[in-house]
């Protein structure tokens, strides 16, 4: 006999004022603000402030927050040394997990409180673009590039990754991507962060655990796999054959389906617009052909396009290597993880669910010499 809430589906862990998902209408709100409005009007720095402190900042508050982030972008020398020592074969998500963990050892303050979460969250949020861009550069034998304080959070990442400052259009697309990935209620990685935090472990341990959860192909790793499937299909004419062969083989169509949404993911609509404007026309045509098949044949089962579907085409247009896609996800989601950890610690209770036992009880112990 199975459990009605397998995978904790439909189970509410707690109350929260950070994020609201209307799964039937396909709507998403950060602190009450519609996700269809924030990417165009706001910035990642402002959205992070909103998620952490519950309100949009005034001009001086935003400038102060931006300055604090910019001042903390540099990496400790010890982290750079470790970055050089990591095996080149290590996936960037594995490298990011190790580097963030090591930074926790350098911090030297293992306690966890709301004040600690915001202070350490500011430091890690600021350093994430520096970590992600340069772990890739070092892995591929390129020189380390120091961050620039004058650049925005998004522009700074692209500058360090590519060695040149991005155009305003490219910078905006990067910023929109980070905003769309900044928060999404209690997904697997956010739950992991909160679970570790609920034990009163330290902030870094919670974030490292979140990175480990995000690393999985059923969570953050789906972006890279979604792009790979478009490249495998090759042309719009091949989409139908590929789609039905994939279903017949019992395989998943990546970027389709969501545990919460029962309609088209609102973040995916925004990514699609940027994929159309900036992406490879051929890949976009393939993805659009496959999208029509998904919405025609799988929608009746509640399977629709999710955020990962179009994101890879946008990242490819920004010249971000596929191996970095999940680290970019983490770079954006650190805002949401920090917000949820701080909120939960305000009324902390150790997270300790149960498992519904379905095995036998009262078995007789048989001595080993009698087991045949």
SSE inventory with pairings:
Blueprint (H helix, E strand, L loop, with lengths): L18 E4 L4 E4 L2 E2 L3 H4 L2 H10 L5 H13 L5 H9 L6 H16 L6 H26 L13 H10 L5 H14 L6 H11 L4 H12 L7 H12 L5 H10 L17 H13 L2 H17 L10 H10 L7 H21 L27
Antiparallel strand pairs: 1-2, 2-3
Helix pairs in contact: 2-16, 3-6, 5-6, 5-10, 6-7, 6-16, 7-8, 8-16, 9-10, 9-16, 10-16, 11-15, 13-15
Q: Briefly, what CATH class of the largest domain?
A: Mainly Alpha
Q: Fill in the CATH topology of the largest domain.
A: Citrate Synthase, domain 1
User: Gap between N and C termini, in Å?
Assistant: 31 Å
Largest sheet: 3 strands, antiparallel
Tell me, what's the shape?
Answer: globular
Q: What is the spatial order of strands in the main beta sheet?
A: 1-2-3
Q: Rg from C-alpha positions?
A: 22 Å
Provide the low-confidence segments as ranges.
none
> Based on DSSP secondary structure assignment, what is the total number of beta strands?
3
Query: Number of domains in the coordinates?
Result: 2
| Total of DSSP H or I helical runs spanning 4+ residues | 16
In what range is the share of β-strand residues? under 5%
CATH architecture of the largest domain: Orthogonal Bundle
- CATH homologous superfamily classification of the largest domain: Citrate Synthase, domain 1
Helix content: 55-70%
Please provide a written account of the structure.
The relative contact order is 0.15. It is globular, with a radius of gyration of 22 Å. The chain has helices at residues 38-41, 44-53, 59-71, 77-85, 92-107, 114-139, 153-162, 168-181, 188-198, 203-214, 222-233, 239-248, 266-278, 281-297, 308-317, 325-345; strands spanning 19-22, 27-30, 33-34. Helix 6 packs antiparallel against helix 16. It is mostly helical and 372 residues long. The protein has 16 helices and three strands. A hairpin with a 2-residue loop joins strand 2 and strand 3. It folds into two domains: 19-216 and 322-345, Orthogonal Bundle (Citrate Synthase, domain 1), CATH 1.10.580; 222-317, Cytochrome P450-Terp, domain 2 (Cytochrome p450-Terp, domain 2, Orthogonal Bundle). Helices cover 56% and strands 3% of the residues. It has a three-stranded antiparallel beta sheet with strand order 1-2-3. The model has no long low-confidence stretch (mean pLDDT 93).
